[in-house]
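User: Structure please.
Assistant: Input sequence and predicted structure:
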Amino acid sequence: MIRELGLPISIDQLYFIRQESVKYLIKELGKEDVEIPYNTLKEEICKRLINADVVSIEGKEDFISLFEDADVRSESDVQYLNQDVLDTLKYFKSNGGKVYLVSDFYGSKTMFEKLLTHHGILDLFEDIYSSAALEKSKHTGSIYEPILSELSIDPSEVMMIGDNLRSDYTNAIKSGLNAYQLPHKKYLKKNKRNNFGNDKKDLKRVINRIYKTCHKGSAIPYTEYIVFYHTFVERMYETAKRKNLKDLFFLSREGQYLKKLFDSYQDFAQIDETRRINTHYLKVSRQATLQIALKDINVEDFGYLQKKYSDISVDDFLQAVNCPDELRTQIIIDLKVEGKTNVEGFFSSSTFEDLKQNKPFTDYYDAHRKASHNAFKTYINSFNSDIEKNGINIVDIGWGGTMQEAIYKFFDYKIPVTGYYLGLGEIYDIQPKTKRYGLNYSLMPYTDYNEYILMANMQLYEQFSAADHGSAVGYSLDAKNYTLEYHKPEEKWLYDNHIKTHQDDMFGLHKKLLENLEPLCYSEEMMQDVMTKMALKVGLFQSTKRLKFLDTLSHGFYQNVGDNQVGISYEPPKFKSPIKELIKFLMTPEKYFRYLVKLKPMLFKKNKLVAFFAPMYLIYLYFKFNKYLRFKVFDRFFRLKFNAFK
């Protein structure tokens, strides 16, 4: 219910509200807990949630309508069939007998029918009698007489079968029925044992199992990254429900795989199909969104290009605005410049001013930006989403929101464009209508220990969620699905030979996570802690097989704006004072984790023997020691501990 309705309440709080509602109704109605009418229970719980500002008056109908299906989902997750009893009942029925279900059950008759349908045995029973529906129970013995009377059955011709001594045997005998108590003591003891345990430990066990599976010799390296993706789509689903989002636009190319995972999660988690979130796959890129957001040449500031490539060549600039080869050559000749030489401070240079006066360029530029604008508008409208009413909610890996801001600019800063990212690594210029959130980690509102760990190796999040198609470079009404695309050969080879299989294996692990995590009651904080611990190990413990895999990935990494660089680059940090940096590392090593995860791959390229002897395990032990010291020991002594140890 919390997940489906986005309720601002913890699992424990909702559970205790239900328990207190039952206790109150027992006293108020003078009935056993299982004799309380199901609708009365729903109303009482809802009343308390409305009073606590958890459910709104307007949201009451949704809460009540989902209540039973949520109970069915919860019950079906923990129920199993006793095949021996089932075979006996089927044999009895096949020989002319009639089987009725009589249960001390808190739910309605329709709820029981849904559960029996789930198990595929609804047809086995002639009818169903629930204590909550009749307001009588086996526990008090009051349920037998009215059922026998309704069915006009002689009690001596009935056999009551159940596992509770008082309810199913003693009280049935007192009512004149024959009775048989099922020997279920071991199952009853098992159910009682299930009350004991620790969800956090169980969560760790599930994630550690994934980690170990992905570290077997036969496993594809880094498939444990599915834990990060799975957590993201789970949080995205919960966020969308909480904010009542109707449509989500997954941005290419990483969004293709994220959408697949999200749709799978939604198929598994949703209670009511009519409340399904619409998901769309929007093909965009930095280069493509640059085209659609272009303003008149005299007012366009080329903000993204200025920020990333302030020193750029005329040729690179013209390629950035998709200028055709022949025209590009002609413009460079007209300007009498060296086309491939970077111009310092290009956008404030005389060269750029000359370019803005060049008629072939301005004619192309105006026609191009108008055509791109019309094509993209038609493309967006093809999704049939009411963006004027609901705004545009985009989903992506991250890291700052370049494409989000370009789309916002395209709609003249009128339609809100909200970004939901796996991680938010840069802030840019956030406005009220361009809010953005990093669901696994974020610089906003501040960065904590876990986030420093999770934001390392950001390029791998992109690599492992690569798409099967090329990058969008622009839009045209004449193009298939309105997009102009280019698939770099290195990228295509990498996807076909490595990434596709990698994603298939991760998807299988995602399915296991759905099943294994469903029975657990874990909070976001629990998952963040477990996920961070795994990320620490993944980043530091890199075998030769994994390092070779990273090197292969590097050859398929391609930037589609600027100098079109191929390969993942690892720039070693430059520290002015190594001693000061060492002290800072000893105090807060997580702030240096992004360098440490790249240390071994860098050494591997230069000297494999040196890489082999890199003391990564000692570094790992220091991380654990440092965290224990700061958050378990120092935590009790320092009033302003976060000044140094946040």
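The mean pLDDT is 90.
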